Amino acid sequence: MKELVIDLEAEKKEILKRYRALLRACKSTMQKGDKRMIRLAFNMALESHQDMRRKSGEPYIYHPIAVAQIAAEEIGLGTTSIVCALLHDVVEDTDITLEDIEREFGKKVAKIIDGLTKISGVFDYNSSLQAENFRKMLLTLADDVRVILIKLADRLHNMRTMDFMPRDKQLKISSETVYLYAPLAHRLGLYTLKSELEDLSMKFMEPVTYKFIAQQLNEKRAERENFVRDFISPISEILNEQDLEADVYGRPKSIHSIWSKMRKKNIPFDEVYDLFAIRIILNSKPENEKSDCWKAYSIVTDLYHPNPDRLRDWISSPRANGYESLHTTVMGPRGQWVEVQIRTTRMNEIAEKGFAAHWKYKEPSADSGTDSGLDQWIHKVREMLNNPESNALDFLDDFKMNLFSDEIFIFTPKGALIQLPVNATALDFAFEIHTDIGASCIGAKVNYKLVPLSYKLQNGDQVEVITSSKQSPKEDWLSFVVTAKAKSKIKSSLKEEKRKIAEQGKEILERKLKSLKITYKTDNLYKLTYYFKLPSTLDLFFNVAKGLIDLKQLKEFVASEKVIENKPERPENLTPEQFTKRTKSDNDTLLIGEDLQKIDYKLSTCCNPIPGDDVFGFVTVGDGIKIHRTNCPNATKLMSNYGYRIVKARWNSQKELAFLTGLRIIGIDDVGLINNITTVISGDFKVNMRSITVDTNEGMFDGSIMVYVNNTAHLDNMIAKLKMVPGVTSVIRFDSQPQDLVKAS
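^ thats the sequence. predicted structure below, dont judge the formating
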């Protein structure tokens, strides 16, 4: 017992030490009375969480202090945010109410904490709790962006301390992070935060690759540092001669961005040359910023040959999130391309701390006419949230679409500048001007030439919209618009149209059911919806009105009604645990569920899992449990949107079965190469091949082979042997192409 007291004493000291470190981090933004507010919030959090512990066994209070520290130090937020960060979990996890917080700290703090508090209560399982929570948080973003910034700090600390979580939770939280929070940090200009969130997600989702790249970077550190030193010394010398005060240094790229490049270009680590970027941070007066940056650019390009296609000028036209910088890629002294980023101290702070720094430098007198791209983006989010039609998942898809996109600059006929995402069409431009103009748009003139609605705009185009009062939004518009605003408005109009048609279908269905002596009631409507595999009763009524469901099919439904009686009325309301109990079978290749039982399943075609792969189960609406690889192209979306439908799955290696997978072999075309490859596959490994396609072009060999293997170890051994075949340069496992995800099925 005495030992526990000593521990508690040590913990008290540690809590106090962390609290003092937090106060030091807040010092630069603190004003009179702020220290008392922070102390009050700290005491309330300490008292509320006093008996709570984290999964690691540490006192829970460590977490809110750490979140507040990140908000202060890494994002640069002020006292209100620090108070909210300290209290962000008290309403959700303790007896304290929002009313208590409002009484102690005022309305503003209460509103931010409400935005940070998850939604509780019963949900329609067709929807997604994560999506609803995210939407609630964004509702508060429209009024106060600090909600998102504190949430990002909270998520970053959770990711940093996730080692003690169970594996399935690690995967779910990492997926959600890389799917939503990292893109959000990117959009708000928090590049350092974004990189760390992506790296930490990768650490849990792709542990082997993560360790491999980290190890490689570590091994080549000395070599890299020598190269950077040789590269920057002549630049620093000339900058000094020309009286340009600057910091010049090399910054390694994040593990995630290196991995993305390896995947995108299909190259091994050794062929990724831009493992770092050179930064030149100029200490310039506000009036000289632009000219100093171009002077530094001139110095760099005099010393090293630039790649003319790789100049990015975000100083003349900053990105929508306020990012300003000059990027160029030059040929280094050892024959490799090096990225150089040139910016001033002010620009660098905006790049590092994003939104918070953006507000710090914003002119207080700025009116709405000089809104930055970031203000415009928040205005767009507000518009999307005001659309009452969209469900949370649709909203999330539309919202995410506009997070990562680069911008192009388009001009109106009068010369006003409009920012749109890359690949935006003439129709996106019309909706950007005004919803009614978009809805009635029939075409456009781009640079005085007539173009169709789906025409993809280029940087610098001048666009004039042509409208007609007889035009209305069409279903096929959704296939080519890219902005969230256009998508949500089109969906909204189409839904309204669908609802009107469904009303007629409702009456028709009522009459038809009456003639078949079936009671028109909710239960029977659900059974019908399930029988016709439709997502909702609205779709059922719509299909009836359109004549897609006739009397003959309804009679077939009546005949099979006894069968339906034995099925769940609303399959989507099953929890993974209930599903586990209902679907037992004798198949023993996979163990599924919390208690790892043997259950019926289907292998997902989007990633073709094989034994040995890291996998999870997903409870679909009408197709049983589907097994996906954890690094499946669709896994991130499924885990982040439908966490409640994810079940554990682990291979049981007792049974030797053959699973189909694909290999892509690239090499130098030579006589006998195919024979050598097939000898390894069929002769050495006794593996059956289902198909082989080969293409040779100007001395290059590119082949795809579908083979049956037992497990990942079997496959890895075969790949290693194939790489030893003379002439073969790379062997990569591939899966069938990622399918577009149909609503959680």
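The two ends are 54 Å apart (CA to CA).
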